[in-house]
Specification:
Blueprint lengths: L15 E5 L3 H11 L2 E9 L2 E8 L8 E7 L1 H5 L17 E6 L2 H14 L2 E7 L6 E6 L5 E6 L3 H8 L8
Parallel strand pairs: 1-4, 5-8
Antiparallel strand pairs: 2-3, 3-4, 6-7, 7-8
Amino acid sequence: MTDNTELKLTQPRWTHVAVPSTNLDASVEFYTTITPLKLIAQNKDDSGQSAWLSNEGQVETPFVLVLAQLAAPVGAQFGIEEGKPHRTLGPFAHIGIELPNREDVDAVAEKARAMGCLHWEPKDMAAHVGYICAVTDPDGNVIEFSHNQKVYETVRKLWGRKPVEA
C-alpha cells in the first residue's frame, strides 16, 4: 500500500474556479483545443456532471478549472436555463492564461479567429498587463492569453522560488 501522506492537504489552498457549461462535451473540446489545459477527471451525480481541467504536471500547486453542466432543477437555482448559454465571465471578468512567448498569443488568436471565438485582438497593454488577446468559450466566458504579464514570475519571486525552466 502506498503512503499518501505527501499527497494530503496540510494548509489552505486556492484550488479551483468553477463555471457552468450548457454542453460539457463542447466545453471540454474547446478548452483542450485552445488552452494548455488537459482533462484530468469527470464526475456525474444527481446534480449534473462536471469535468476538471488542469495544466499537465501541475503538482506543486494544483489548480483546476471545473466545468459544470448542472441538471435542470439545480441550474434553475442559479438562474441557468437548460440548453441556454449562461455567461459567467465577461465582458471584462476572465480567466487568465500566461504564455511563454509573444508568438504564442498570436497563435492562439489565429486559432480563435478560425474557430470564430476571438474576443479581443492581440494588443500591447500596460507593462503589468503585457501582450494579450482573449477568446470566448461556448458559453461566452472570456479567456485571456497573455505574454510578459509576469504573474507567474512575480508570485514565484514573492514566495522565494526561481522560475521553472520549460
